[in-house]
# Entry
Amino acid sequence: MSDPNRILRRAKRVDRLMGAVIRVGGLTIIAAVIGILLFIGKEALPLFLPPRVAPVAPGVLPPPQAIHLDESGKALFAWDLRRGLGAYTLPGPAARELPPGPPLPWTRVLPPDARGTALVLAADGKFYSVRPSWDKPAGENDPGQWKAEAAWSPALDPGPQPCEPLAFRKVPGSGLGGGDTLRLAGRRNGVLAWTEAPAEASGPLAWTPLPLPGAEAQAASWSADASQLFVGTSTGRLLVFDPPSGQLLREAAFSQPVSALGWVLGGTSLLVGGRGGALEAFQQVRVGDAVVLQSLRAFPPLQGEVLGLAASQRDKRFLSWSAESLAVDHLTTGRRLLSAPAQGLQGAALSPRGDLILGATAQGQLRGWTLEAPHPEVSWGTLWRPTRYEGYAEPQRTWQSTGGTDDFEPKLSLLPLLFGTLKGTFYALLFALPVAIFGALYTSQFAHPALRNLIKPTVEVMAALPSVVLGFLAGLVLAPMFERSMVQFVIVPPVALSLALLAMPLWARLPRAFRKLFGEGREALWMVPLLLGAFGAAMALAPWIERALLGGEYRLWLQSHGIPYDQRNSIVVGFAMGFAVIPIIFTISEDALSSVPRSLSSASLACGASPWQTAWRVVLPTASPGIFSAAMVGLGRAVGETMIVLMATGNTPVMEWNPFNGMRTLAANIAVEVPEAPQHGSLYRVLFLTALLLFLLTFVLNSAAELIRQRLRKRYEAL
Amino acid sequence: MEIDDPRPVAEPLGRLSAAVGTPPTPQLRLRESPLAITDAAVLGAPPVLEVRNLDLWYGPQQALFGIDLDVRRNSVLALIGPSGCGKSTLLRCLNRMNDLIDGVRIRGQVLLGGEDLYDPAVDVISLRKRMGMVFQKSNPFPKTIYENVAYGLRIQGERDRRVLDEAVERSLQGAGLWEEVRDRLDQSALGLSGGQQQRLCIARALAVRPEVILMDEPCSALDPIATGRIEELIFELKKEFTIVIVTHNMQQAARVSDFTAFFWLGKLVETDVTERMFTNPRQRITEDYITGRFG
Ligand SMILES: Nc1ncnc2c1ncn2[C@@H]1O[C@H](COP(=O)(O)OP(=O)(O)OP(=O)(O)O)[C@@H](O)[C@H]1O
Ligand SMILES: [Mg+2]
# Structure
């Protein structure tokens, strides 16, 4: 016989071992969850890190009027009134050879545009344009191997009167005869005038004056296609001209005399700098029937007169500088990415990528900064608050992560996604909660045990249905079906209810024996003919209703009431997602209702309460914490549900409660956007942020549900 | 075996007025003679409930065999007998709580004021309003004390606050709980002690002014002091209500009841005035059971 002590010791040992195993398992799970959370957080965090700025000291140049940085940030061209165009590579800067240009000294340089095309007024009083470039043999990375090239245009003769150029744009030829054309605007004797000429023009230019009563043009800029001329005046007005007709199209007021004009990438937003350092972006938008020129956003002012503006070729950031300071701002967020004092600044340049800023002083001193701001277009404000975007007259809450062009301004507001999530959840629960809870109430309190034993496993099988299948059915079968017979579906419930009310008195007339056999606990059987009857009646009634009340076509009727109809709409989603969450709500509620002690319902019945009163006044309130927690779990499930919303909604991020249009939820958005999001890009990180949000949302909901369930358990222990 | 021709019982009646007038403390009552006092008035009272030849089956198994029993107005009838003999089953027949159990079949009659409870035309719900029930284990609803008592009236659609207030106070006073809970009516009933909860359940049953109160071992989960209080209460309630009580406690049966019915294996062995039952039972088996010699 074995020694009882030994058995006891062994039992204790096994106990300790299993305890340790379980503890390790549990801790691993907790650690894994925290690890995932931390990882998601780490991926999203860089969105909110401040930009990193580091000064660099590139050296000294002959004092340039204007500079243009190469894409690589390793080479630059500098325009100097006395020495002409120079090419330099960094570090150094090391001067590189260039063919000679127009006669020196120059009178004026129009600063280079984004591609580096500049216009100079040379010693001979003629205009020359140039677009210098670097020849990089076979993608060579070492700037020492590059060759600088500069092809000067033929001289343009401004005519007998001296002209101070203000704006210049080369319009590429259409390709069908006729080469490029040039459009120029300038000041002749203080009068604004413009001209258009073929790029290879030889004769004197023919100027057309543009009347500008009571003000002098200080700065001008052509729109991207050179069809419109934007002019800033000494009186602080901004004017838009249609030069061929000489017509003043629009105007707007600026707070100060205008000193510089420029464009943000995309050519939609006009940047305006003032003599007092004010900085503001303007745009032309359609308001009602009219197009107006209005302020898009004002930026913190610079110190001193704004001398120049330059845009990045990657995103909506731009550089502005004055003789005392220099700043890089982002158009969408209005965030100042870099701000540096810079005494005696004359020319400055932003590298096309926007990561290197060079400033040159009148003494030729070069100053530089590297700017690391990978996600300047995202800020807490753009994520959560209505934001003014280019091309919109009003602040928008929009999600539109990618567009057709490179200069597209991403609109990453999480509000429509959160709204879509809540809307989808709302419609799903609107359908699921009553069905699941009343179903559970019926099953646990009224149904015949045989029926109950049939319902419970059926519902559990329902839970096993993959949501892809549900989404697929909803999107491809249910949605078209709804569209065809929306009226029928809408009237089925009231028709069924009225049929039931009509049938009730008949039921009371039936023989008692029959009622006893098919009555209490077997009511569900009667639902089948009732529902079939209701469907039949709805089918018969719907065309008539549609004709009589809705003018023959319900979609047109909806439209005429300002309600657009989408095929994949919230009703379809509510139905499909409701179907997905019903099993879990039903099961938990049913458990809660069944665990209400029998003694309570007996007490209620013995007091003379009807079974319905007992269920409604005693069982349901007693089980209410459990039902609440069931609803919360269902809510958590609906919030995180992806496949169904992905397939059954149009994924349109609109913010309307209208049940006849779709939505885009946080979860579906992640699924939709992930293939489009380059790693470590802004979109990629914002997606991680939404994942974090989703995680927190479901975490909070599930924790709340669990807490309530604990409370419920305690409550029953007291009984 | 029924109580048809009640014979007067002389001696113990003398002590009745004293007992009713000044309720003795529980300790005192427990130490007193095990024999109770049958009110002379109830012996001649008309029957409220008449059970006639009642058979009951749980599925194939018969649990009650031809029961014949009368319950007289304003009397206390104690049902005693060994476990599983069908006391609770019979009690549940009196307010048709057996209907809720699946597979129950009933033959025979239960007459309440001459009307058959099992007549198909009878409305079970209004019937149960006439038959209050108190269960073995106290089962207050997880609501406030006030709502517990007011429940029966509320389900009848009573909304008038004054009527409810009045009924709650009356019932709690009737159940001897008023003084203890008058300041905490809006607190949860689950915060009361076991004995208080059981009296609350009695108050809940009283609130709808039933004709008969059915009690299934109401004191089995209570300590002697709480038991004593409930016994006193039964003594008081008798003035207004008719009570049927199931108990395993012979002393309790002797103390509180006017009549006693002894069941054995689903059959009513004998029923009589309590004094006679405990002093001079007619059947041998009754005597064995009462004296504890029962196997
Ligand atoms: N719901 C039921 N289904 C089937 N049989 C039952 C049911 N309730 C009671 N019985 C059976 O009926 C018989 C009588 O039971 P009952 O509960 O009436 O006894 P009792 O006298 O109240 O016993 P106790 O003193 O232990 O409470 C028992 O044999 C019991 O097994
Ligand atoms: Mg019992």
Q: What stands out?
A: Residues B 58, 63, 81, 83-89, 101 surround adenosine-5'-triphosphate (ligand 1) (CB under 6 Å). Chain A is about 40% helix and 25% strand.
